[in-house]
Request: fold
Amino acid sequence: MEPIETHEHDVIVIGAGGAGLRAAIEASSHGASVGLVCKSLLGKAHTVMAEGGIAAALAHVDPQDGWQTHFRDTMKGGSFLNHWRMAQIHAQESPDRVRELEQWGALFDRTPDGRILQRAFGGHTWKRLAHVGDRTGLEMIRTLQDRGVHQGLEVFMECTISRLFKDGDRIAGALGYWRATGQFVLFRARAIVIATGGIGKAYAVTSNSWEYTGDGQALAYEAGAELIDMEFVQFHPTGMVWPPGVMGLLVTEGVRGEGGILRNSKGERFMWNYLPEARRHEYAADEGEARRWVEAAVAGKQTQDRRPPELSTRDNVSRAIYTEVREGRGSPHGGAFLDISYLPAERVKKKLPSMFHQFMELADVDITKAPMEVGPTTHYVMGGVRVDPDSAASTVPGLYAAGEAAAGLHGANRLGGNSLSDLVVFGRRAGLSAAQYAKALATSPTIPAGEIEAEQRDLLAPLERGSGESPYEVHRALQECMGRRVGIFRTQQDLERGVEELAALQARAGKVRVEGSRVYNPGWHLSRDLRNMLTVSEAVTRSAVLRKESRGAHSRLDFTAMDPALGKVNMCVTRKGGAMSVAPTPLPEMPAELRALFEEKS
Amino acid sequence: MSAGPVPVDAGTREVVLRVWRGDASGGREVEYRVPVETGMVVLDAVHWVQGHLAPDLAVRWNCKAAKCGSCSAEVNGKPALMCKSRMDQFAAGEPVTVRPMKTFPIIKDLVTDVSWNYEVNKRIPPFRPRPGADWRWQQSDVDRIQEFRMCIECFLCQDVCHVLRSHELKHEFAGPRFFVRIAGLEMHPMDGEDRSRFLKSEAGLGLCNITKCCSEVCPEHIHITDNAIIPLKERVVDRFYDPLKWLWRKITGK
Reply:
C-alpha cells in the first residue's frame, strides 16, 4: 500500500456545518489541537440553506416566553419521545448561544427597541425565532466560519472520512481521502466529533444536498455506537413541486410564519381539518382571527388572537398536504397552494427575499402576485447517534456527536428553528467534552495497522473491478425503494418488502464498478457514500417495522393511533456480529418538576 | 381561486451540451446529448450527463438553490451559477457550452482550485466589537449592510475581475469578494477595527479601476462596486490622503 499522509490531532471534527464549526471552536478554545474535516468547501454545508431562524426563548417580542415554554413546545412537538434532559438543556442554553453569535459578529433583524427580533414558527407558542430575513443559516455559518478560521482551526476541505478506527474499545482515528486527488489521508485522534448532518439523499425528493448520505450515523454504527429514533424522518411540508428540476427544493416555513395560507384546488383552507383535537385550542378559530394575528405580526404588535392553522407542526402539515393531493384536491403539479400574495409586495420581498427570487427565477412565479405550489420533501432525520445529553458522548469512548447526526433532542418530530439552536447548543457541548476527554487520556491510542490497509483496499475495489453496474443506477434504485416503501405513510407489508429490497441493493452496491481515475471522481465518491446510505436506510426501515403505531413523523396506515407503551421506548440500532439488530430501549423518565410543567398547563 | 400561472410543458427536447473535460495538463470540450425537461437548469443537465454518460465528470454543487455558491462555471462564456442558468434561456438548436472558471487553477473538468480565496480571508482583520458598546441598534443599521452579508462565496466576481483574471495579481489584490466582506465588517454597527491600512497595502484596493464587471455577474445582485468598493476607496483616501486629517492625526497622535 502507498505511504499515507498522516495528521495527528487531539480532536477531529467531521463535518463543518453549524454543529461541527461550533464544536471545533469550543474544543480549540480549550487548548485542544483540532482538525476540521468536511466533504465540501468550507461554508457550503447544509446550515447555509437554513432560512427561517434559530429558536431561543429570548422573550424580546413575546415577553411571556421562557425556557419552560420552549421546553414544553419541543417535547410536545416530538410527541414526548425526546430525551427530556436534551430538550431542557437546549431550551435553557439557546438564548446564550444566540447572544454569543451576535457577539461574534452575526447580525439579526431588530425589534423597534433595537434588540434581536423574533418570528413565529410552527409548534412554537410564542414568537421565538431570531432571524435575518430568510437567510439566517448563511449569517450563522459565515459568523462561525470566520470565528473558527481566526482561532486557528486546521481545516481539511473536500476530504471524505470513510472509516473510524478504535484502539480496543476507544476511538483512535479515521481514514479519509482527498476528493481532489483521491489520495488517502489518515487522522490520528484522541477524540472524534461527528457532525455530518442527515440522510436525505436516500430519498429522491429531498431538500438535501449530495453530502447528506448518512456518513456520520453509518461510521458511528460501524464503530459500535448505538443509533436511536431512526424511523423518524421529517418530510418538510413545503418543498417546490414544479418545475421538475427543482422538485424538493425547500420553501421556508418562514412563509407560513409571515402569514402564508395553504389552500387546495377547491380554494379550501384545509389545515383546519387536520388540527389534532388536543391542540385545536392553540390555533385561530376562523379566517378572521387568523387574519388579525397576521395583521398584528406585520404591525409588530401584541395580540390575543391565536396563530393560523398553517403553523401546526411539520409532520401534521405534511400529512395534510399529502392527503389533500391523494384525495384529488391537489394543485396542477401535485401539491397544495401556498399563498402570501395577499400581503403588501414590499413586505414579502423584505421578509422573504430569497423565496421571492427562487420562485421568480426558477419557476416563473411572482409570489407577491400568485400562490406557490408546494408539497412534502425529505428534509431532516430526527434519529441518529445516541448521545449523553450533557456531554454529547456516544456509547463509544472518545466518540461524540452533535447536530442532525445525533439523536434525542427532537423525539418523533422536530420543530422548525430548533435545528439551528441544536447545532450551537450541542456543538459547543460536544467540542468541550471531546477536548476534556482528549486531555485526560494518559496515552495516545494506536490504530491497528491491518485495518487501515483493509479499508484502503475496500475503497479502491470499485475502481479496479472489470465489470459491474454504475453506482448511480444503484442510488436511483435506493431512492425509489425508500420513497415507495418508507415514505410519509407506511405499512407493515411495504416496510418488510423494503427490508428485502435493501438487502438486494446492498449486494448490488458491493459489486459496482466505477470508471475513470481517483482524481475528483464523483462516481467513485458515490460508491462509498452509497454504502452509508444503505446502512442508514436499513436502520430507518427496520426501526419503522418495529414501531407499530403512528407518532410524530412516523405514520402507519395500519396502526393509525399512538400506542402509549411505544411512547416509553426508543428503537435502538446496533451492530451485532456484523448484522443489524434493532430493539426497543426504555426512554429515561422525566423528573417530577419538569412533568409538572405539563400538568399546570393542561 | 385561480391556480396561478402554470407553465405549459414544452415536452422533452434534446440539447447538445459541450462540457470542458480535462485537468491541469489540458483538456477539450466534449459533446453530450441531453434530454431537457421544463424548468431544467444547466446543473441538472450536467448531473444527467454524470448519472448516465460520464460518471466521473467532476462538478461541485450543494444546495441547487443559489444559496451555497458551489456550482460556479462559465456558461456560454459568461460566469454564472449553473443552478440558476435555465436551459430554456438558450436558443433552440444551439449547443450550450460549460467551462470551468478561468481565473483559478484547474483540478478536473468543471472543478477549480479556489483555495487561494480562503487564504485571503484568513488575513482579513476579523470582527472586533468596540469596547463598552451598547448591543442595541436599529433595523436600518442591519438593512444598510445586509447586502454585503448576502454574499454566497461563489467567487464569480473573483473569476471575472480583470485584475485577477488577466493580470493574475492574486499576490497583491484581494478581489471583489473580499472587499464585500470587509465592507460588511467595517459597516457593522458594533465593529471597532480599522482595516484601512490592510485595504491600502495587503488587499491592494487601489488596483481596482471600477469597471463594475464584478457587480454584473453577482448572482446575489450585490452592488459590489458602488456600495462596497467605492465607499472603501473613500475611506482609504480619507485615512491616508486627506491633508487636514493627516495634520489632525499628527497633532493628536490618533
User: Anything to note?
Assistant: Chain B has ten helices and seven strands. Residues 1-10 of chain B have pLDDT under 50 and may be disordered. Chain B has two domains: 13-111, 115-252. The two ends of chain B are 66 Å apart (CA to CA).
